[in-house]
Amino acid sequence: MTNGVDTFTITIRKRPWWFWALAGLWILVEVLLLQTALASADEGEVRAATISWIAAAILAAVGAMVWFRRGRSQKHGESNGQGEDASTSA
Amino acid sequence: MAGGFVAASGALGSLWGLVTGAGTGGNARKRARWIKTVDRPTLAEKTADYKRFSGNDMFALYRPLKAQRDGAGSFEAEQASKTKRLAAWMKERKPGFSQPDQQLSEGAWTVMRSARPGTGLLSWTRAPRRTPAEPGAQRYTASPEEMANTVKAAARLYSARLVGIAPMNEGYVNLQVPRENEKQNDKEIVFDDVDVPAVTDTKFVIPRKMKWVVAIAIPMDLDLLSRTPTPLGDAASALGYSHSAFVVSSLAVFIRGLGYEAIPCVNDTAQSIPFAIDAGIGELSRLNKLVTPEFGPAVRLCKVFTDLPMACDKPVDFGLVEFCKTCKKCAEACPSRALSFDNEPSFKTKGPWNNPGHKTWFEDSYKCFEYWQKSGSACGVCLASCPYTKGDQAWMHEAVKATASIAPEADGVFRIMDNAFCYGKQHDPEKWWTKHSSSGRRG
What we know:
The structure holds 2 protein chains of 2 kinds. Chain A is mainly alpha-helical. In chain A, 68% of the residues lie in helices and 9% in strands. Chain A is elongated and about 70 Å long. Mean pLDDT of chain A is 81; it is low at 80-90. Chain B contains 15 helices and 14 strands. In chain B, 45% of the residues are buried. In chain B, helix 2 packs across helix 11 and helix 4 packs parallel to helix 7. Chain A binds chain B through residues 27-28, 31-32, 34-36, 39-40, 42-48, 51, and chain B through 5, 8-9, 12, 222-223, 226, 390-391, 393-396, 399, 420-423, 427, 431, 435.
């Protein structure tokens, strides 16, 4: 608190263009794998469905891991006074 | 989240349709962009040896060949043994061979078994109930393109899934219709400058003015085909043939109702495969049968000859011949090793069941039929194992086929993936009944 006034820091994160391209690709592949899994199960192709479910689960786990690690490393970078992002405080 | 997935799937599905240029499954009139039309079929080379086929397929040849190879009476002994085996399997309710399994196939054959060349359903002359002359109408005329579209629309209504128009080629018409029993004679098939087709005691007469052929493909039920080699799996073929008989007979009456002549044929009278190739329905494959891009080889073919002028379609190329050179999955899956393992197609025939003078992967049909006798079924493992035999629900299948059509370098990878995903393996015959009965239980 400064002079009895609450302060807040707002950090605006600007992700690079390739992040969005990768995210889009991730979503595309994930949807394709899930669609293949559901459709293969419907077509009676059990092994194809199983492989697709496993692949979709692995890709989801990898995506989640990347997301959380990136989030944590950026937080760590801010607390060390580093950061590529604009920030503003009120 | 589930709603988001459904929305994303729907959006991507529409986007996929836009990219490939096709409608859903194989029922769309517009074919996918990766199916290219070409001026000549991919396996089109012919030599001077190419002549009209005798009409004596393996069904006509097996008995005399068996007697030649294994002695007089060997065919009859084999038939007796097969009948006994089938009866025993029926009694012990062997999956795929039980009484309901065998009778499901018998029932599916019903329409086809009542279809004989030139008579009944496949009559060459049966008029519609009201001919154009009766209400005083003229023969229906329109541009060749419009006529082709009209005939295709009618064929699709009658449940044809793939329809194409090819020019008549007398070289594809058999020399004769083999007799069905000892009391009959083979009947010659001749072309003549007459106005109407005719079926006499000694010959079938095709008017030379019948210059167009409507080639049709009926997809086989994949759920049944996946249970092959069993009588349950045979029901897929049987159903396809019965549908074929219905489609061509209905289409023939429709065409006659427009004021033209029409000759409906299923497997009889002429070779369906080369007409289907010329009509752009598919390509010739390692199976020495047609493979369609939409349904693979899991189709039954039929055709209607007519003098109704129509715009002809062109053959197609979707990278199948290059794929077949690498794949060989059908040859490996064949229980009797009847299919060719050669890397390249050739002119070398394997027996009198082959028609020489054209380039393909010829097969040993004797070995194939011998396995039919041994297994008590019409096999079809090659059809089920082909990587192009796939359902139409998973987008992955279309993505792979489209990529194979433009990047043959990836064919080997797709073949490995097809095995890794266990496509083409036999599905449990028992589960067909539990899947399709309302109680979820057999009986």
